[in-house]
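User: Could you walk me through two proteins back to back? I'd like the raw sequence and the structure tokens for each, with a short line separating them so I can tell where one ends and the next begins.

Assistant: Of course. Protein one, sequence then structure:
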Amino acid sequence: MQTAVILSDLAALAAAHGGDLLVLALALPALALLPAFALGGRWAGRIALLTLPLGLGVAVAIAAAVQHGGVPIAYHLGGWAPPLGVALRADGLSATLLLTTAVVLCAVGLFARADFKVPAGSRETRSPLVFWTLLLGVWTGLNGVFLGQDLFSLYVALELVSFSAVPLVCLSGRPETLAAALRYLLFALFGAVLFVLAAALFYGTYGTLDIGLLARHLAGADPVPPAVLAAAVLMTLGLLAKTALFPLQVWLPPAHAGAPAAGSAVLSALVVKASFFVILRLWFDCLPAGVTQPAAPVLAGLGVAAILFGGVQALRQVRLKMLVAYSTVAQIGYLFLVFPLALGAAALPAGGAAQAAGALTGGMLQLVSHALAKAAMFMAAGLIAVALGHDRIRELGGSARALPLTVFAFALAGLSLAGLQPSGGYVAKTLLTAAADATGQWWSAFALQVGGVLTGAYLLWVLFNALVGFRAPPTLLKRPRRYQELAVLALALGALVLGLVPASSFELVTVGRGGLVGFP
């Protein structure tokens, strides 16, 4: 009882300083970036590893403040409210993603310590400095995306994420990684150009880029101006390219192929989610229901195609890392089922609001559990590749005995990915299936089931090969550090434990959703 009172007091204290926490979440990684770059790779890792737990504490405090207050928290920079000033805002979705980002980056930072540490007395190389500064750059950009309230700030934050993530793909400097990074860069630039064009159309129509003000203008627009419709299409297309939704996923698997395991974990778990979050805000928080209703099935149709294409391609891969990469293509598709399910449930005559919240919660839970599970799987795949000298699936025989903790963590993460009990993925897919049943969208339920079967099939294929030859484990070229394996295991357990958390804990996701467009 006393512990509950203390936690409640701390949450109330965080709520009282909510605006300051938003500034701190944005400033902390940005301020750490400067000395990390100036002092070199030997100090960059130490600074990043010191900053990461502090950032996790700030993210926890923001989530507690939003949950405790039951309303979004906001901060106007310089005391100037939009449209003159710039606002930061954290609702339930933002707080959830800030927390997820901090958790994943803490685990990635611990994992990467072995690969990007400059040993005492040795000459400093390029990779540690580049990796740690880029990691802080990605973190700054992600927090900017999750807290930004106007389209210009979101554009800047998205570009910071992209231009920090692209070099992570080619840290080794090999020709094939440079080609993959160049392809990623071209898609990122394509998305950026479309985003800018769309923002110009919004500003030209209403004279503001603030999402809240745009939503107020559009709420009374009948009909919606053609320029706004064009802006919505352009912006969504640009963001889909950054999210790697089918058929714009062509840059993602090659980017993973040669990237370091820690870089792949960040790219798959967090970077592609940033642009999805902006799509979510655009269609749910800004555009009116008259626009979102007809567009939602199109987005979900692309999601279904991604689930099927990514699942089949994953089954065809010969390398473990490429299998996990195509699995990301498939899992991204699940996120886009949220649009017709949430909007369809909101239109139900009775209980619609609850079903809509369930669909949205299911989508966000899918996002969080996938982030944890996929980061764990990429890091596990990286440990296996380094230990065996390859990641060819058919030649993994005996790896389950040689690397039991790593393979066990990979399997645990796979449980959530496949949507098996008692994982977070299971709860997410159950909520989405319930919304599909309630709204009569059988095709969404069908895609969820088929996607689960495909995921189970390629995971069983990996585990079967890892268990073959169990009596004769392979000779390891390099044994993973124990703390690396524990970081992987922690993320996999996190994805699993999400399914055991009380349902009331997920109410955080819906804070700030009630009065927004699309959720009457």
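----
Protein two, same layout:
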Amino acid sequence: MKINRQDVETVALLSRLEMTPEELEAYAVQLNAILEYADILNKLDTKGVEPTAHVLPLKNVMRPDEVKPSLPRELALANAPEAEDGYFKVPKIMEG
């Protein structure tokens, strides 16, 4: 399948994109180059190649989310500029 300038113009119109005649021509050339490369890839023999989602072996590096003892409240508030009723007190940022 070959993409021509009219195809690009139609998609641009549907997408409400304004393009110059030079841009329409350039995108048609670029899209055809992409399709030609996809055709080359489609000709490769991939029998016996497992489908993959990533090219690198990735693993989750996050630890399990477990409840653990935390910093005592008094110690957490020890260096707070201002505290009230056991909580950090911060400046009001919204009117209302």
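The first strand starts at residue 83 and ends at 84.

Let me know if you want the two compared in more detail.
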